[in-house]
Amino acid sequence: MLRAGPRPLALHLASAATNWTSSLAALPLAKNGSLPWKKELKAEAEALANALEKQSPEALSAALGAEIRRRMADFVGGIECYQQHPYHRRYSAAFSAPATLWQDGSSALLDYGPDLAGKEVKTVLFVPSLINRGYILDLSRQRSLMRYLAESGVRPLLLDWGAPVDEERNFSLDDYIAGRLNRALDAALASAGQPIGLAGYCMGGLLAMPLALARPADISSLILMATPWDFHTGRQRDIIAVCKPAFETMISTLGVLPVDAIQALFAALDPLLAARKFSRFNGLAANSAAARSFVALEDWLNDGVDLSAGVARDCLFGWYEENRPAHGCWQIAGQTIHPGRLSQPVLNIVPARDRIVPPESAEPLSALIRSAETWRPALGHIGMIASPRAKRTLWRKLANWIKSQGETACIR
Fold first, then answer.
1. Does the model's pTM come out above 0.85?
2. Mean pLDDT, the chain, whole residue set
């Protein structure tokens, strides 16, 4: 079956076509020097105008049209290759399905180190975002942070939130954090027999933090991975402000924020990102490791889930519009979340090349948490989890940090 992505496909195609064809309309302005340029590009603009003056209008239009057709062909060709690619993420003898330790509704607690249960090893519960599925942490046999940690002597547990169905469509962040995550922690503690580490990736760091504050005796350390705190540092705030009436109408009418609306929000951060990615993919050999890795990651990116109405409003409007966390007024289950009150060892990983959670959004947590150790790997938001360099530049160091944490007392 053909893939539907990249989602939303019509938006990606329209963005590329609109951007590239606008060059035809701008060509006369570029020739006569009336096209507005940034001051720092003045010299380049004058050189371009001089070069254009030497060309006939017909030849320029023809060359520009040919370039637009070439770019569009590369983009569409890459999409077709992706949609038809034979790779699919499947479990096998070499890539076995993790054991399910606990389940509640659509959510499951996956155990990537069942053979380590009962041994003197560190257990860490990983909390992913509610927006994208958690298997980014177990993307493939070659790129799985979960399996790497298990092989390194750490017992990793992963909370797979699942997609909201039935009453879950009415869940708020209180329901997910004080309810479901809290119960998942109980199951993890019962299996580990001692306090465990808690790790949150992206939005998952914000989901994990309230539990670390509420249950300090049960959580031995907290790892924040590309976790936002100041939501007024990136472009998302402005984009959400413009789209708020449309988002509110969708949420009120459908009871959820559809995954394609969320994907459109990410696409707005870089409207031509999909065009660049798929054009490059069009030049890869289909059976190459690079092509398979590209497809695996794109399949995950296009496998997002709807956000329940309560969570969507909390995140879009409570976080991005009102910036409640940074302003010290974000509450879970009636308790205001103050990172400075964390008593456990905290590791704040701030990817230096992150465009989804800019470093200036995550850095304030290091200033607020006195016990925080901060790492700034030269990786991106997704690259810290799924890039070929992540293992040698971050994962090995992370495994050692987890194992270096102080001895914990048995709670049984």
1. yes
2. 93
